[in-house]
TrEMBL record:
Biological source species: Streptomyces djakartensis
SUPFAM superfamilies the record matches: Metallo-hydrolase/oxidoreductase (SSF56281)
Family annotation (SMART domains): Lactamase_B
InterPro entries hit by this protein: Metallo-B-lactamas, NDM-1-like, RibonucZ/Hydroxyglut_hydro
Protein name per the record: MBL fold metallo-hydrolase
Record-annotated membrane-spanning stretches: none
Residue ranges of every copy of the Metallo-beta-lactamase domain listed in the record: 19-228
Pfam families: Lactamase_B
Amino acid sequence: MRAGVHQVTDGTYLVHGSHTNWVILTEGDAVTLIDTGYPGDREQVLASLAEVGSAPEAVAAVLITHAHNDHLGSAEYLRAAYGTPVYLHEAEVPHARREFLHQVSVGTVLANGWRPGVLPWAVHVIRSGGTAHNPVTAPEPFPRRGALDLPGRPVPVHTPGHTDGHCAYHVPGTGVLISGDALVSGHPTARTEGPQLLPDMFHHERPRAVASLDVLAELEGELLLPGHGPVHRGPVRDAAHLARERAL
């Protein structure tokens, strides 16, 4: 399957992999890669870099919103093969090393198997490496506070709840918010479309995930690039408020 690469602003691309998105920020010959899909999405990740005129050697850093396998997929490959640093929030670093796992359990998925879309989604997860042991051996916390000295100058925004160290990435200069799983616009197991939280079973601490929507509502921007679902155009504030209303 070929990934869908969509340019949303100059130098910013949202890529739809198999059920999960990643983002490419370009600056000259260098790029920042935010998330990397499932382990089984590797060829799509590499193809998406080529489609925007880049290559894995040009990835200045991999930024991870959170250390679930559908976002962490090729991070260790890029680190080991090309020396690419992999950055996360400090609370998410041990999660990426797999010192613990904040993830929906098999039992919970089975208990929710009656819900529309859950079983086909679960089969896809298994086929894509979503249940594989896939740690990053040397993940690093962000090297500085505020905007990172990387293509796009993304600003990490701590949005805990889905996992303890979940981070969104704000790009103020382009009005872009890369929201990971803190705020999505769709999912194979969701019953609605548009801005929303993922279904309850996916969050490590749902009340904190709901509270993190208030953090996102304070950010200026008109382009929401979620971890799941299509690009959402319109004030990020309104998207976060709508997701909060739907969550209550």
